[in-house]
Amino acid sequence: MGIIEKMRLDGKKIFVTGGARGIGKSVATAFAEAGADLAIVDLDLDEAKKTATELEENNGIKAIAIKADVTKQEDVDAMIEEILNVFGRLDVAFCNAGICMNIPAEEMTYDQWKKVIDINLNGVFLTAQAAGKVMLKQGGGSIINTASMSGHIVNVPQPQCSYNASKAGVIQLTKSLAVEWATRNVRVNCISPGYIGTELTLNSPSLQPLIEQWNKVAPLGRMGKPEELQSICVYLAGDTSSFTTGSDFVIDGAFTCI
Ligand code: NAD
Questions:
Q1: Which of 200, 202, 228 to mutate to test the pocket of ligand 1 (most atoms within 8 A of CB)?
Q2: 118: domain range?
Q3: CATH label of the domain that carries residue 206
């Protein structure tokens, strides 16, 4: 079997949080194209359903939509239960849901701080832990978390201290889980994208004036596209990445090199 065939995900059961749109939807599409069955998990059930239907129609795989808030233990438990009822197992978890708030540190309320940490870091812990429990019992699996280049650098000029802190936390959480579960065949990696054109960035009015500034300093002179994150995630989800765990993949068009 050639390497491309070995990288296929036929029959694998995968959940994607924040899968209704943006990076989650794009990566879920790649997983479906590679043959996996999908659970599209999101706060926005209508969009999640549309995405799941699109994936089924275009790829002949099974895709379900699940409404869950990744910050709520009961939602995450119910999500796992539904996935196991429908698919019988869980091979890959893409813990990707996240938000950003641009607020100067001295003006940020504690509630605003906690909201970002809750979704971006606690939500990744809850979903990765829930997935890990199933995978440890099954004897293996692959978890991919979405961190950010903001876990490595302090973006300017926008003030986003809670986001930066949450993403640095995701990177270290990823490494910690990878080490704890390494001998039990559960691999844990994360991706750290640079600026990617999604609803989070393109549709945020406060970010519009900044995009031009970012592109001026970006070595590639542009933002990334969600589909430019697809192949690394397919690699991490599949069996050819069996020696890859505890790694953080910075995919930022060299933005963090400057
Ligand atoms: P997006 O806003 O387009 O999509 C995020 C999805 O997550 C939405 O469908 C939303 O409904 C869902 N979501 C939000 N809170 C949730 C919750 N509590 N429970 C379940 N679902 C929830 O964002 P995106 O740009 O696709 O970002 C996806 C991930 O990538 C985030 O973790 C983000 O921090 C990260 N990221 C984005 C960029 C970028 O430039 N877009 C760069 C680096 C990292």
A1: 200
A2: 3-252
A3: 3.40.50.720
